[in-house]
Amino acid sequence: MFRVIPAVDLKDGRVVRLRQGKEDEITFEAENPVEVAKQWVERGAKVLHVIDLSGAFQGRLRHEDVIAEIAKLAEVQVGGGIRDFDVAERLLKLGVDRVIFGTLAVEKPDELRDFAEKWENRVMIAIDSKKGKVAVKGWKETVELTPIQLAKLYDNLKVSFLYTNIDVEGLVSGIEKSRISEVLRELKNPVYVAGGITSVDDIRFVKRAGAAGVVIGSALYTKKLKFEEAIKVEYEKV
Length: 238
Hints:
Helix 1 (33-42) packs parallel to helix 3 (64-71). The protein has helices at 33-42, 53-58, 64-71, 85-94, 103-107, 109-118, 147-152, 177-186, 200-209, 218-221, 227-230, and strands at residues 3-11, 14-18, 26-30, 47-52, 75-79, 98-101, 123-130, 133-136, 141-142, 160-165, 191-194, 213-216. Helix content is 35%, strand content 26%. The longest helix is centred in the N-terminal third of the chain and has 10 residues, at 33-42.
């Protein structure tokens, strides 16, 4: 079923939102991530999207205890700084439903394919797009692969994809519809869409295009989009 998924981004023990993933451009912050996560669940969220931003920037997971607590509340998908298969396996055993690989998906495709075969349906590949190229290492670097080229390395396995358009991430300015449509058209596995989702119409477009769900952060935290309105789209015929 299509899911509307709030983002819970962790940095230095807090929940934050960043503009275009830039470490020093914080647009929102709140204490107590577990409490923030609990509030989303109480308002109807079935899935939470938890990213360890400190981990992404520093290259290793920094909020494992907090993630374990959040994983008790709802279905969760977790990413940020997972650059080690032992860490990923530990998270899965802690109760995380899906682990998200970005940098490793580019750097160690053969090993990640083996890991995905072992943990069927519990691996999510991050397709982070910056000016049409794949971004890695906390979105600080790009590689020559296009998002679709990266995804095709894994599309014959039982994985899901998270497509994020960094060009509009955190700007609360709307989505780039043509890029989303292209990714969804090319891939057969479930694709979740993030980046720039600002309105109920954006969510409806993504659902109509065939996505498995949307991840929403800044629009919810800045109250530009009401979660109670957004989540209704889960049940709508579009």
